[in-house]
């Protein structure tokens, strides 16, 4: 049977593809001519109460030919033959056909009135108009339905998503209309929080309350929920996602209203739930003046330009029309990737790709001077805690010496603004990476206080960014896709999260507010429990923790904390003119005291002595407390979802 359907479909597709667009239009006009003849024949039969209207057809043959000719002409002028039938909505067909029928009827009445040629009963014209509308629209819908059925039957072996659309408003209605012709989806119902819509029908589907979802799932056996609420705020979306978790169905969403209005995507561009949707964060619109202050018309250099934050900084800087954007990166492929991306997306951007290390003072100073750099965003660093913990000397070279070298080169080259990308792990650090980033902050604080310093040094401190290289989110996503257990280091571990674009935007805006030596803090919102995040990701993938996907507790890795420090402490931070950016008061070390300590630290790094390095770091950062977590037998066992 399936083979026969495939053969019929192949014949129809072959016939359709052999016809040009004009030939298809003429074919549809010929079909309409037959339908119009049937309509007038039926109208005459109904008017004269006779099953045989042949005598009347002969009697009014001239007027009937004129009637059909005028209708076809009006149909064509009104654009009824231009749309591609399988993508044409019912609303468009009804509206266009109604207008065409009304206009053609009005034309006939006008001709009859002025030329005194009309002898058909007026009731025939009314009945004919109604039948014409019914036949023309009905034929098109039937043809579209036939194509849909053939596609559905041919794809019967492929899995079909049984879909409930959450949101019965304009977006949900448009989404249902877009998916109705797609055989991969079978629409089941709408659900909506608006009680006035309950028990109504939208696009032929019943609208239910969200409270009815468990019963609806048992009855209709749907496996996917599509959130069609592009304009809803983050908090509301988060609350809805929280409620949907218990259903253990796949949850997807449509693009945001900003993406739709910008013309980037259509409402039918369905995507998986982004991890940012689970945070419920409210993003504040960026201050355009702050974004442009240190970028527009200036020469800007980004170190670590191929990294997660560095590459996003480059994208956002490119949007603000810099005079020149210098990409400075040690990794060849990372530099190539961001350079090619910018070349494709910003063809008029003046940019330079420089392969080099921030510890190479000769090359870095040459680049800064050659391109007359005004602003530096220093994102180059080793950031992965366990790797830096296992390789402390390399952490010192890249994070501490690299920052010192870049800062000195910036001063010697007359750079106006130098912004360091720091981390929440610099707050009372328990690992080498966090301690090295705190030392990097101390360097900039000390240099900023030196008299006659030509460069404004500042730093921006924030927590984890979503989907950055090596972060938990892409790892969890991959583990779920492969059906492997999700690995969590500790059941109580929490982290602060922010999207990469939001973090980069706030870094640029914070840097613009700097006067020199400030430590800016980004409001990261509420901490997220990593275990709960894993449970949410599993359930929103349509799976059940402990049944479909295990969650294994592996134990803390060297240097890891269970909880990161709260960045925004009211006792140690003050507000700025941006609601998401705060400024902290941190202890400082004068340069004449800091410099010999740095030399001692570098000496231990040259010796590759981990114990000596940690001792020197503790001297520089008294709050640094190295930790070696104990991994017990119980922490290694899988823990089921609560």
Describe the main β-sheet briefly: 9 strands, mixed
Number of strands: 22
Global Rg: 34 Å
Helix residue percentage:
40-55%
Mean pLDDT: 82
Shape: elongated
Q: Approximately how much beta-strand content do the residues carry?
A: 5-15%
Give, in spatial order, the strands making up the sheet with the most strands: 10-9-8-11-12-13-18-22-21
Task: Give the key terms.
7-stranded mixed sheet, 9-stranded mixed sheet, disordered C terminus, 642 residues, alpha/beta
Model description:
This protein is an alpha/beta fold and 642 residues long. 48% of the residues lie in helices and 14% in strands. The chain contains 22 helices and 22 strands. The strands form five sheets. A nine-stranded mixed beta sheet has the order 10-9-8-11-12-13-18-22-21, with helices on both faces. Strands 3-4-2-1-5-6-7 form a seven-stranded mixed beta sheet, covered by helices on one side. It has a two-stranded parallel sheet with strand order 14-17. The longest helix is centred in the N-terminal third of the chain and has 33 residues, at 122-154. It is elongated. The two termini are 48 Å apart. The model is unreliable at 260-265 and 628-642 (pLDDT under 50).
């Amino acid at each position: 049977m399936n083979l026969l359907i495939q053969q019929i479909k192949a014949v129809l597709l072959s016939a359709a593809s052999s016809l040009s667009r004009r030939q298809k239009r003429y074919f549809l006009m010929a079909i309409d001519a037959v339908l119009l003849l049937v309509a007038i024949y039926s109208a005459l039969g109904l008017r004269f109460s006779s099953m045989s209207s042949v005598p009347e057809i002969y009697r009014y043959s001239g007027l009937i030919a004129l009637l059909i000719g005028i209708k076809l002409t009006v149909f064509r002028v009104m654009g009824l033959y231009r749309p591609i039938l399988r993508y044409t909505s019912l609303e468009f067909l009804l509206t266009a056909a109604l207008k065409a029928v009304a206009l053609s009827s009005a034309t006939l009445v006008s001709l009859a009135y002025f030329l005194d040629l009309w002898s058909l009963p007026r009731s025939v014209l009314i009945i004919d108009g109604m039948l014409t509308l019914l036949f023309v629209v009905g034929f098109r819908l039937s043809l579209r339905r036939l194509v849909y059925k053939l596609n559905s039957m041919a794809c019967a072996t492929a899995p079909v998503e049984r879909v409930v659309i959450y949101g019965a408003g304009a977006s949900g209605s448009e989404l249902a209309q877009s998916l109705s012709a797609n055989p991969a989806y079978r629409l089941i119902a709408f659900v909506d929080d608006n009680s006035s819509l309950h028990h109504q029908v939208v696009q032929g589907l019943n609208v239910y309350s969200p409270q009815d979802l468990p019963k609806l799932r048992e009855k209709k056996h749907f496996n996917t929920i599509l959130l069609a609420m592009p304009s809803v705020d983050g908090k509301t979306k988060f609350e809805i996602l929280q409620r949907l978790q218990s259903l253990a169905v796949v949850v997807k969403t449509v693009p945001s209203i900003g993406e739709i209005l910008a013309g980037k995507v259509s409402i039918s561009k369905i995507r998986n739930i982004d991890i940012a949707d689970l945070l419920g964060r409210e993003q504040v619109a960026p201050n355009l003046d702050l974004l442009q202050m240190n970028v527009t018309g200036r020469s800007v250099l980004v170190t670590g330009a191929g990294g997660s934050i560095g590459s996003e900084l480059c994208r956002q800087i490119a949007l603000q029309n810099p005079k020149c954007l210098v990409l400075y990166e040690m990794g060849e492929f990372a530099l190539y990737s961001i350079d090619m991306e910018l070349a494709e997306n910003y063809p008029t951007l003046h940019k330079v790709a420089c392969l080099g290390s921030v510890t190479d003072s000769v090359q870095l100073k040459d680049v800064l001077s050659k391109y007359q750099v005004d602003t530096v965003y220093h994102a180059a660093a080793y950031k992965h805690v366990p790797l830096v913990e296992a390789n402390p000397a390399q952490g010192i070279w890249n994070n501490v010496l690299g920052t010192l070298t870049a800062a000195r080169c910036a001063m010697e080259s007359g750079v106006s603004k130098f912004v360091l990308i720091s981390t929440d792990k610099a707050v009372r650090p328990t690992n080498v990476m966090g301690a090295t980033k705190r030392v990097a902050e101390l360097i900039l604080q000390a240099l900023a206080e030196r008299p006659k310093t030509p460069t404004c040094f500042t730093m921006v401190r924030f927590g984890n960014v979503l989907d950055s290289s090596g972060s938990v989110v892409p790892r969890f996503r991959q583990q779920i896709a492969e059906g492997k257990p999700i690995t969590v280091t500790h059941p109580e571990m929490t982290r602060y999260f922010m999207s990469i674009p939001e973090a980069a935007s706030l870094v640029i805006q914070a840097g613009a507010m700097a006067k020199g030596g400030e430590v800016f803090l980004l409001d990261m919102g509420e901490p997220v429990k990593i275990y709960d995040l894993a449970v949410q990701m599993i359930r929103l993938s349509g799976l059940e923790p402990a049944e479909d996907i295990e969650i294994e507790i592996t134990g803390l890795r060297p240097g890891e904390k269970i909880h990161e420090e709260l960045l925004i402490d009211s006792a140690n931070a003050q507000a700025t003119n941006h609601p998401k950016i705060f400024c902290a008061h941190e202890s400082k070390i004068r340069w004449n005291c800091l410099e010999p300590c740095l030399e001692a630290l570098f000496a231990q790094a040259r010796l590759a002595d981990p114990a000596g390095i940690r001792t020197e770091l503790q001297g520089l950062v008294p709050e640094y407390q190295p930790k070696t977590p104990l991994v017990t037998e119980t922490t290694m066992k899988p823990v089921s979802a609560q």
